[in-house]
Design brief:
Elements: E1 6-12, E2 15-21, H1 24-32, E3 46-53, E4 56-61, E5 64-69, H2 72-89, E6 95-104, E7 107-112, H3 119-127, E8 132-135, E9 138-142, E10 147-149, E11 155-157, H4 159-165, E12 177-178, E13 181-184, E14 196-207, E15 214-218, H5 220-229, H6 234-237, H7 239-251, E16 254-259, H8 262-272
Parallel strand pairs: 2-3, 7-14, 14-16
Antiparallel strand pairs: 1-2, 3-4, 4-5, 6-7, 6-8, 6-9, 9-10, 10-14, 11-13, 12-13, 15-16
Helix pairs in contact: 3-8, 5-7
Length: about 270
């Protein structure tokens, strides 16, 4: 007797996709893929099918294979990245920044910076203080409104970050562990956010192990320069992207926030933001 089919709807901004299949084992994996971006309804624009293959597992879009993995853990990692890549290609109407986003009462802060800047640890620390997590790595900026939209892929926690901020890690499926790191769904941290929020501030984190918290206000020109450095699709936007970054820097106060302990940095931000 064939297994019953299953389907999970996911939504990132206005892009909706479905994960489908009929294998009970892969259903458990698919349920965890982008679980923080569960769709509330509407039709999927893309459909992906999860299937077993000779030698492993695969994710298909139509006749195209977009991800493969010899084990369930490797399949989860490859499928998660493929879904991120394919979604961003279809979200080019938004300026994409390397940035975490947290919100409270509909007002959002961007935590902007390159890898190793401390975005994930600071995002998680703020989530544990009651902020809503819209994302820890990719921010989608809507040009007309200057609002930021949720892009809730999993947070990838390294052992040090997990030990400091989330020592009592909830039960996480084995497929979401890799080389000591774990994929943490944002649905497990903080209150659920609205789909978009008003941008009111820019924070440029700088992780300095062993350091205290130090704030330094940034001028508009410096804030704009740093935003441009972290724009992921600026080449597609051209002059319109430069103008949008200028508007962000003009509208949102910006600070550099150096810290060694994300918990202290999160406390500082929460106090300043009231």
């Amino acid at each position: 007797m064939a297994a019953a089919g299953w389907s999970f709807l996911r939504q990132i901004a206005d892009h909706r996709f479905a994960l489908e299949g009929d294998d009970p084992l892969l259903r458990e994996v698919a349920a965890e893929l982008y679980s923080g971006a569960a769709g509330a309804g509407g039709l999927a624009q893309l459909r992906y099918r999860c299937q077993r293959t000779t030698g492993g597992f695969a994710l298909h879009r139509g006749r195209r294979t977009v991800a493969r993995g010899a084990t369930l853990g490797r399949f989860f990692q490859e499928a998660e990245w493929a879904l991120t890549h394919e979604s961003l290609l279809r979200l080019g109407g938004y300026l994409q920044l390397h940035a975490g986003t947290v919100a409270r009462q509909g007002r959002a802060l961007l935590l902007v910076g390159p890898p190793e800047a401390g975005k994930t640890s600071l995002t998680l620390a703020l989530g544990l203080r009651g902020w809503s997590l819209l994302g820890d790595e990719i921010a989608l900026i809507d040009a007309p409104s200057l609002e930021v939209l949720a892009c809730r892929r999993d947070l990838i926690l390294r052992p040090g970050t997990r030990a400091l901020l989330f020592p009592e890690t909830p039960t996480i499926p084995e497929v979401k562990w890799a080389e000591g790191n774990c994929y943490l769904s944002p649905r497990l941290v903080g209150p659920a956010p609205a789909g978009r929020a008003e941008l009111v501030g820019l924070v440029f984190p700088v992780l300095r192990l062993g350091a205290g918290v130090a704030r330094q206000p940034l001028g508009r020109a410096e804030a704009a320069r740093r935003l441009l450095e972290q724009a992921m699709n600026l080449g597609d936007w051209g002059a319109a992207g430069m103008e949008l970054v200028g508007r962000l820097a003009e509208r949102c106060p910006a600070v550099e926030l150096a810290f060694g302990d994300a918990r202290q940095a999160a406390e500082e931000i929460s106090e300043v933001q009231g």
